[in-house]
């Protein structure tokens, strides 16, 4: 929890019916003082807004019961009408404050369409024997509740009577004083009220002057928490996070951590100061998304990671149909709060919307969510969603670019037929036609031009155009690095690859490929890549390749088999395994893999390049060249690897040299 500004007085709860024994509840590391509405963790007080504390008390006293939102609102605001969003706000505060129990289950559980439940095991300390973590008695002075409204507060300074006769009625002792002094309590209270107001105003002005004007030069946007209780809405919270990161990345001089960097914090009860230290950023943005029917509520909080102070907090409430507007407003408001100087051109970029159609935008975000999983089923699902988005908005350039990248992913990750590349190229051309300033469109087109057309010069022009439009696009730098490697321009490739990794230092893909470029640190780097995502098959494929080069054959075989297990739809790991078996002196097992691939090719597509590679591994030169010709005929994109893979058994053959020439790789510089 970030701190609230200034000091606030308690709500003057002048109760005569208080229990003489202090009620203190204990659950794991927490203790909650019900009398003073104070929460402690391991003896340290945790500031809670009064209404948040009241909400926690209701849950503790009715622990294990499912409470509907109607019940909660009735108990927390018994005499006032409030909107449900107020309740959701305090629920989000409590989730963030309490986090999970030691068994990793949340203290506060959301039960879809039923309500909420507190699951902690609570003990009541009723004899008052527990000592407060202060040497002096607890002073009931609580933080200002920055979320409260006039309709929801209890008695406050403004509620004190201003009529002297009323004051005397509620304070009979005043009548015993001399008449000249009878109004002193009222005057003193008025002076106190004015003093409090002046103090808070002064502190607020000081805070504004010294802090809110200070520019923030680096930020990490934490994955927005899906508070809807519906996993199907996860794509929306992830999509909004990625969209905001992408928008902020357009601001010159502002360092924004990539999605692959912050995604490891998803679902964690994270502390802004710790995140700031780990990621070396000055501010952290937290967000909570709630979708109820056609209503969207997004609560965001910007925290100074250097001191934990809250810099900005806002709640956005929109209809689902206002999703596009929500994204635009959020980016605009946040940039303003960061106090980063921006040009008119940057303002135009931030204000630019890829689509005005919220239905199209939701479909696009859902497609991105599926595409990132990189399985054949999910990529095909993503393509379908992108086309649905285009049906809603035929001018949606970004959706066309996404289709182009997804078709290329099918060929590279899932052994898709090269005809997928042609479909992708048409989509990329349409994206550029609709929006010539869309970097993603040019980058996608460049990758497809060299993968399918083998037109290297034209592809490089498109890459350079993409990087000109968005120098901070990690994917453009990465794709350009791969292009340069295919052309055997390894020094330039390393520079581009490292730039991509600088922009996304926690990307499993970028780190896996970086391992192959650093022979002295290859093992260390590939293990780091695997730790980032143990379920990413490609990292294990690269590990197998690296271990084999060091004659660590047992480890290499294990990694290649794990890669295949994690992604059964690809045969790249089969090629690597066949090479490992040959190097390990087990050629018969390599031939067994060849037989399996040939059998598989009768029922579904197997890249001819892969079959040619295995023939080359087992030393069958003629059949290796025959299958390379088949790969050439169907424009297998793996042919672009001919200069970077080991073809020692055929590399001096005139047929192989002719194939290199036709693919445009002879004499490459």
Detail the topology: elements first, then pairings.
Layout: E1 24-27, E2 30-33, E3 38-41, E4 44-46, H1 50-61, H2 69-76, H3 84-98, E5 108-111, E6 115-118, E7 123-125, H4 164-170, H5 184-212, E8 218-221, E9 225-226, H6 234-248, E10 255-256, H7 259-262, H8 272-279, E11 283-292, E12 295-304, E13 310-319, H9 323-338, H10 344-351, H11 358-371, H12 376-392, H13 397-413, H14 419-434, H15 439-453, H16 456-469, H17 474-486, H18 490-503, H19 508-516, H20 522-532, H21 537-549, H22 553-566, H23 572-583, H24 587-600, H25 608-617, H26 621-633, H27 654-663
Parallel strand pairs: 8-10, 8-11, 9-11
Antiparallel strand pairs: 1-2, 1-7, 2-3, 3-4, 5-6, 11-12, 12-13
Helix pairs in contact: 1-3, 6-9, 6-11, 11-12, 12-13, 13-14, 13-15, 14-15, 15-16, 15-17, 16-17, 17-18, 18-19, 19-20, 19-21, 20-21, 21-22, 21-23, 22-23, 23-24, 23-25, 24-25, 25-26, 26-27
Structure description:
There is one protein chain. The protein has 669 residues and is of the alpha+beta class. Strands 8, 9, 10, 11, 12 and 13 form a six-stranded mixed β-sheet that branches. A hairpin with a 4-residue loop joins β2 and β3. α12 runs antiparallel to α13 and α21 packs antiparallel against α22. The longest helix has 29 residues.
């Amino acid at each position: 929890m970030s701190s609230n500004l200034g000091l606030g007085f308690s709500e003057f709860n002048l109760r005569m019916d208080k229990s003489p024994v202090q009620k203190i509840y204990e659950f794991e590391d927490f203790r909650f003082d019900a009398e003073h509405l104070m929460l402690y963790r391991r003896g340290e007080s945790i500031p809670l807004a009064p209404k948040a504390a009241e909400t926690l008390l209701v849950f503790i006293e009715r622990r294990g019961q499912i409470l509907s939102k109607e019940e909660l609102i009735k108990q927390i605001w018994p005499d006032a009408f409030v909107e449900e969003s107020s309740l959701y706000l305090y629920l989000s505060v409590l989730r963030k404050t309490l986090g999970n129990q030691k068994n990793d289950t949340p203290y506060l559980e959301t039960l879809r369409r039923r309500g909420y439940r507190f699951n902690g095991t609570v003990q009541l300390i009723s004899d008052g024997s527990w000592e407060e973590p202060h040497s002096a008695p607890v002073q009931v002075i609580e933080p200002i509740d920055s979320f409260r409204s006039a309709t929801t507060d209890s008695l406050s300074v403004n509620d004190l009577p201003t009529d002297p006769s009323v004051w005397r009625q509620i304070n009979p002792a005043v009548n015993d004083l001399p008449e000249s002094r009878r109004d002193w309590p009222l005057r003193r209270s008025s002076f106190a009220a004015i003093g409090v107001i002046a103090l808070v105003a002064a502190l607020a002005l000081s805070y504004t002057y010294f802090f809110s004007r200070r520019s923030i030069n680096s930020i990490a946007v934490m994955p927005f928490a899906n508070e809807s209780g519906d996993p199907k809405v996860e794509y929306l919270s992830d999509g909004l996070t990625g969209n905001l990161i992408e928008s902020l990345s357009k601001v010159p001089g502002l360092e924004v951590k990539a999605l692959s960097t912050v995604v490891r914090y998803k679902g964690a009860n994270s502390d802004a100061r710790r995140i700031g230290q780990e990621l070396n950023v000055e501010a952290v943005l937290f967000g909570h998304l709630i979708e109820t029917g056609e209503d969207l509520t997004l609560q965001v909080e910007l925290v100074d990671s250097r001191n934990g102070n809250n810099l900005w907090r806002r709640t956005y409430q929109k209809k689902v149909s206002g999703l596009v507007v929500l994204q635009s407003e959020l980016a605009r408001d946040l940039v303003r709060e960061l106090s980063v100087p921006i040009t008119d051109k940057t303002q135009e970029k931030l204000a630019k919307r890829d689509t005005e159609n919220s239905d199209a935008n939701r479909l696009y975000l859902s497609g991105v969510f599926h595409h990132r999983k990189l399985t054949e089923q999910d990529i095909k699902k993503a393509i379908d969603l992108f086309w649905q988005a285009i049906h809603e908005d035929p001018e949606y350039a970004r959706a066309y670019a996404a289709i182009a990248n997804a078709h290329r992913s099918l060929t590279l990750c899932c052994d898709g037929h090269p005809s997928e590349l042609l479909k992708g190229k048409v989509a990329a051309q349409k994206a550029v036609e609709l929006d010539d300033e869309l970097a993603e469109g040019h980058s996608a087109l460049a990758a497809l031009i060299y993968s399918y057309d083998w037109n290297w010069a034209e592809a490089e022009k498109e890459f350079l155009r993409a990087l000109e439009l968005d120098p901070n696009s990690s994917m453009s730098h990465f794709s350009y690095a791969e292009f340069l490697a295919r052309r055997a321009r390894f020094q330039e490739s390393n520079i581009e690859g490292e730039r991509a990794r600088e922009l996304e230092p926690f990307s499993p893909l970028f780190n896996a490929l970086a391992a192959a470029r650093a022979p002295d640190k290859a093992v260390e780097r590939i293990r780091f890549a695997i730790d980032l995502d143990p379920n990413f098959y490609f990292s294990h494929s690269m590990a197998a390749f690296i271990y084999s080069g060091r004659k660590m054959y047992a480890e290499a075989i294990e990694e290649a088999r794990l890669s295949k297990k994690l992604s059964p739809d690809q045969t790249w790991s089969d090629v690597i395994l066949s090479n490992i078996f040959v190097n390990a002196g087990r050629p018969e097992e390599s031939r067994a893999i060849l037989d399996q691939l040939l059998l598989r090719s009768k029922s579904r597509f197997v890249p001819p390049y892969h079959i040619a590679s295995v023939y080359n591994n087992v030393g069958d030169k003629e059949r290796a060249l025959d299958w390379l010709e088949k790969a050439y005929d169907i424009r297998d994109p793996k042919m672009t690897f001919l200069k970077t893979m080991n073809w020692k058994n055929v590399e001096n053959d005139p047929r192989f040299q002719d194939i290199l020439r036709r693919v445009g790789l002879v004499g490459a510089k």
